[in-house]
Each structure stands twice: as structure tokens, then as C-alpha cells.
Design goal:
Order of helices and strands: EEHHEEHEHEHHEHEHEHEHHHHH
Largest sheet: 8 strands, parallel
Shape: globular
Helix content: 25-40%
Bound molecules: zinc ion
Distance between the termini: 9 Å
Mean pLDDT: 92
Number of helices: 14
Structural class: alpha/beta
Strand order of the largest sheet: 1-3-5-6-7-8-9-10
Radius of gyration: 18 Å
Low-confidence stretches: none
Length: 329
């Protein structure tokens, strides 16, 4: 339930990508990680990326992947901030991809300060959105701004869950570091939205503030708060796996990969979360979605943490009679 789509706009997808300075080697690393050549960045990236992702989902134990749109960075008045942000993925792109491929489920992205935010939300609901994604610290979204109450109420009413980035971030430029605090999600939680705190508030860089305990406290207060395991196979984020495997958090965990963020088992093995045999076996697995899944199984995440998302995603009414419900893990 946490798979990124990226593109440079080739083929008229509407996506764009702006990789600068220190993000260049990181982007090249991610491309290599998913088996794409460096030249893909300036070539037909959109098609290559989707083909590769489809191949990986089909070749893995997963039934489907929720693919994420990425809205622009907006100011408080809901106007796009010129030059901010490093990539953009339009809602229509993920909605169309999901119409073409049963392996994909669409998560849209809407900055709630946009003047037509509610209209766009309703449009995306009609088009079959199953989730909404936002990055408060990177997209400048103060989720607890009272002006957004109606937006969250509409999401709650439509049973559309919110996946919100929490904790530090080093892959994308951060506009408001203080919005990494999971407490920013209080208003949507109070409005009854099912909220999934991506990364459970864990820190990404060594010097980031740690919000895991804040996430854990909020989860006790709000039964509608969940946390995802995305990027738990990178060095620092995975530190809190033992707490995530204990109640009350265990019943709130959902599986996310954060694809194309690299997934490696070294850190889980060094911390004793997986044994040597599992580490050796799964680190060799070339399918990175499968590797991430198997490493998390080896850490002790139960089957429910991979299927729980089925109960949380919005189930759009099938357009035609007899359309099968999506099967996913
Ligand atoms: Zn992510």
C-alpha cells in the first residue's frame, strides 16, 4: 500500500521529475535498485518504470500494489509554490494506470488548501480512488488547519483512508520539518478518517527528531490510526520493529514497501531481527518487492499485517455488474 510511481513526462503522462545536487546519486541508486539503466532518467522513463513495476508485482507474492500520485507543493492560500518539490504525478495518471492493470490500485494526492480541493476529491472518488496520499512536511500541509475540516469530513464519509508521511525525510526536499510530527494528523483523526502514518513516525536521518513514541501514543488514543512498515529495510527506520511486533501496535501495522526506495536485509540482520539464513536467502532475491516482503515475514510480521489493508482501503462500487473485487496483500 505504499508504492511510488515516477516519470519524466514522456508519453504525455503529465509527470515531471527534477533531481538536483545530492539527490542525483540517490536517484541513480534507486533506478539501479529496481533494475533500470541510469539513462532511463532522461529516456522513456514513464513506460520503463511502469513495465518494471508490473513485472515485479506479478513476480512477487503480492496480489496488488497501491500506487501513489504526488501533488505539487502549495502555499497556505492553495497556490503552487514555484520551483518547490522534486517530482509530480497527476491523479489521472495513477487512475488510468489502475484502469489498465488489475495489479494497481490508485491512491490520489490533493493538497487540501487548493481552492478546488473538494471538487477534485469528489472527482477522484468517482474515478475509483482507494486512498489519498500526502507528505505534510514536503508538500506544506498543516493537516490540523481547521479550514480543512470539511475536506477530512468528506474523506471520512467516503471511507477514503489517508496515507500521510511521518518522521524525517531525506529523499525529497522538506519544506516544513516540524510537520513530520504525527500529531499534525490529529484533526483528520478527530474527523473520523482512517489514517495510516507512513513509517510510523520513525526517523530517516541520524539527526532527525524521533517521533515513533508520539505515533505509539496517538495509536492508543485513536483506534482509527495505523502505521505502515514502508522503508523498514533501510538503515535507520527499521529500529522500532520489536515495538511494532507487540500489542497494541501489532494490530495496527500495514505492509508498505516504499518502492523504489532500496530494501536490504543487512540492518535487520545486524540488529538480530532476522537470522543469518533468512538474510542470506532473501538478500539474493532480485525481485525487490518480494525481498522486502520476505524480510518482513522473517522479522515476524504476521500474515494479517499484509492483508489488513484490504479492510482499510475504500472499495469503489464496481462500474459494471460482475466486476470482481480486487484481491491484494
Ligand atoms: Zn514513500
Amino acid at each position: 500500500m505504499h508504492v511510488h510511481v515516477v516519470g519524466n513526462g514522456t508519453g504525455g503522462t503529465g509527470c515531471w521529475l527534477r533531481v538536483r545536487g545530492w539527490q542525483r546519486p540517490l536517484a541513480a541508486l534507486m533506478l539501479r535498485h529496481i533494475g533500470l539503466p541510469r539513462e532511463a532518467m532522461t529516456g522513456d522513463l514513464d513506460r520503463l518504470y511502469v513495465e518494471r513495476l508490473l513485472e515485479q508485482v506479478r513476480g512477487s507474492s503480492l496480489g496488488a500494489a497501491v500506487i501513489l500520485a504526488q501533488d505539487l507543493v502549495h502555499n497556505e492560500q492553495g497556490r503552487p509554490i514555484e520551483g518547490a518539490g522534486s517530482f509530480y504525478v497527476p491523479n489521472d495518471y495513477v487512475l488510468n494506470l489502475s484502469r489498465q492493470h488489475a495489479e494497481f490500485l490508485p491512491a490520489v494526492s490533493i493538497h487540501p488548501a487548493r481552492p478546488e480541493a473538494l471538487e477534485e476529491l469528489n472527482r477522484c472518488l468517482d474515478a475509483g480512488a482507494v486512498m489519498l496520499k500526502c507528505l505534510p512536511n514536503c508538500q506544506n500541509i498543516n493537516c490540523s488547519d481547521r479550514r480543512f475540516t470539511r475536506f477530512w469530513e468528506r474523506m471520512a464519509e467516503a471511507k477514503l483512508p489517508l496515507l500521510a508521511h511521518t518522521g524525517g525525510e531525506h529523499t525529497l526536499p522538506v519544506v516544513r520539518p516540524e510537520f513530520a510530527d504525527p500529531r499534525i494528523l490529529t484533526l483528520p483523526l478527530e474527523c473520523g478518517v482512517t489514517v495510516i502514518a507512513a513509517h510510523c513516525g520513525t526517523k530517516s536521518g541520524l539527526f532527525d527528531p524521533e517521533y515513533f513514541h508520539v505515533f505509539a501514543e496517538l495509536a492508543v488514543r485513536f483506534p482509527n490510526l495505523y502505521g505502515d512498515t514502508s522503508a523498514f529495510n533501510v538503515p535507520i527506520r527499521g529500529r522500532h520493529v520489536p515495538e511494532c511486533l507487540r500489542q497494541p501496535l501489532l494490530d495496527r501495522m500495514v505492509h508498505g514497501s516504499d518502492y523504489p526506495v532500496p530494501a536490504h536485509g543487512h540492518f535487520a540482520w545486524m540488529r538480530g531481527f532476522v537470522d543469518w539464513k533468512s538474510f542470506r536467502r532473501w538478500e539474493r532475491q532480485p525481485n525487490v518487492l518480494e525481498r522486502d516482503y520476505q524480510l518482513k515475514l522473517a522479522m515476524g510480521f504476521p500474515a494479517e499485517s499484509f492483508t489488513r489493508i484490504q479492510e482499510l482501503l475504500r472499495r469503489p462500487r464496481p462500474k459494471m455488474a460482475g466486476t470482481p473485487a480486487p484481491l491484494l496483500s
